[in-house]
């Protein structure tokens, strides 16, 4: 595989913004198809349409579950996963219940993840577990999530939704998204079969390559066209 295709296969093209219109969604799916990325990452209601637009392209459909705050009942997350898979999703990105993580209720957290994993396994899909690291100030919480995810045997752990806005002292909201230290920590504390997805704020080829070097196997981004355009120039394909 040539280097540009290898980079494309690292990318989940994100189509998750709350204001995304039908026209923008369709254009995004067609872009994902033309660039032959790993998946188009879409909201649950859009899975069936995405699957139709991507049929025969080799580009998968990734659906987000409990997005973006992870607060749905575990049974609801499992049902949402079932419906997404029935509509054509092959990958599922679920958000953990952050309040339960911060409370140290690891039994609940593990059962919540397991409920979705059981359904993805039943449907032949793969599961990515989103930690939402912007909300987790303690490394020990991220490490516990790595250990639970490894014990359960999920396919990926993921840094962020891209929408984990935290209120600052001045009353404004901001987010960091993926950070290199978090990816390094997650790689160190996950078992070798568990892969790492970094998402949130990755907008250039340099960003992608730095996260890859730190241990990321997959990248979630809206800047897919720009990143792959840079890659074509860098590797002499332009």
Topology:
Elements: H1 3-8, E1 11-15, H2 22-35, E2 39-42, H3 47-54, E3 60-65, H4 74-86, E4 91-95, H5 98-103, H6 106-123, E5 126-130, H7 139-152, E6 156-158, E7 166-167, E8 173-174, H8 180-189, E9 195-199, H9 205-214, E10 218-221, H10 224-234
Parallel strand pairs: 1-2, 1-10, 2-3, 3-4, 4-5, 5-6, 6-9, 9-10
Antiparallel strand pairs: 7-8
Helix pairs in contact: 2-3, 4-6, 6-7, 7-8
Structure overview:
- With 238 residues, this protein is α/β, with parallel strands linked by helices.
- The protein has one domain (3-234): TIM Barrel (Alpha-Beta Barrel).
- It is built from ten helices and ten strands.
- It has helices spanning 3-8, 22-35, 47-54, 74-86, 98-103, 106-123, 139-152, 180-189, 205-214, 224-234, and strands at residues 11-15, 39-42, 60-65, 91-95, 126-130, 156-158, 166-167, 173-174, 195-199, 218-221.
- Strands 1-2-3-4-5-6-9-10 form an eight-stranded parallel barrel, surrounded by six helices. A two-stranded antiparallel sheet has the order 7-8.
- β2, α3 and β3 (60-65) form a beta-alpha-beta unit.
- α7 (139-152) packs across α8 (180-189).
- The longest helix has 18 residues, at 106-123.
- It is globular and about 50 Å long.
- The mean pLDDT is 96.
**Number of separate structural domains:** 1
| Inertia-based shape | globular
Query: Which CATH architecture?
Result: Alpha-Beta Barrel
Write down the overall mean pLDDT: 96
Order of helices and strands: HEHEHEHEHHEHEEEHEHEH
- Which structural class should the secondary elements be placed in? alpha/beta
Give the CATH topology.
TIM Barrel
| Number of H- or I-type helical stretches | 10
Question: Main beta sheet, described?
Answer: 8 strands, parallel, barrel
- Determine the N-to-C terminus distance: 17 Å
- Tally of DSSP β-strands: 10
Q: Runs with pLDDT <50, length 5+? A: none
CATH homology group? Aldolase class I
Q: Give the DSSP E fraction (strand runs of 2 or more residues).
A: 15-25%
Report the CATH C-level class: Alpha Beta
Question: How much helix, percentage-wise, in residues?
Answer: 40-55%
Work out the radius of gyration.
17 Å
What spatial order of strands do you see in the largest sheet? Answer: 1-2-3-4-5-6-9-10
């Amino acid at each position: 595989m040539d280097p540009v295709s290898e980079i494309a296969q690292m990318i989940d093209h994100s189509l998750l913004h709350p204001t995304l219109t039908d026209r923008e969604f369709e254009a995004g799916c067609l872009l994902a198809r033309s660039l032959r990325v790993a998946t188009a990452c879409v909201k649950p209601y859009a899975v069936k349409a995405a699957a139709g637009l991507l049929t025969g392209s080799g580009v998968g459909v990734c659906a987000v579950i409990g997005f973006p705050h992870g607060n749905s009942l575990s049974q609801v997350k499992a049902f949402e996963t079932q419906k997404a898979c029935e509509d054509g999703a092959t990958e599922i990105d679920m958000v953990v219940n952050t309040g339960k993580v911060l409370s140290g209720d690891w039994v609940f957290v593990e059962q919540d993840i397991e409920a979705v994993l059981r359904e993805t396994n039943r449907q032949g899909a793969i599961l990515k577990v989103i930690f939402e690291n912007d909300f987790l100030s303690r490394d020990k919480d991220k490490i516990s999530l790595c250990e639970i995810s490894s014990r359960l045997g999920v396919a990926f752990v993921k840094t962020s939704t891209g929408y984990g806005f935290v209120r600052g002292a001045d009353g404004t909201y901001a987010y960091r998204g993926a950070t290199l230290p978090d990816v390094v920590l997650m790689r160190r504390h996950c078992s070798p079969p568990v892969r790492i997805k970094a998402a949130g704020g990755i907008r250039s080829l340099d960003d992608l390559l730095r996260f890859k070097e730190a241990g990321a196997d997959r990248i979630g981004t809206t800047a897919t066209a720009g990143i792959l355009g840079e890659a074509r120039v860098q590797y002499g394909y332009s």
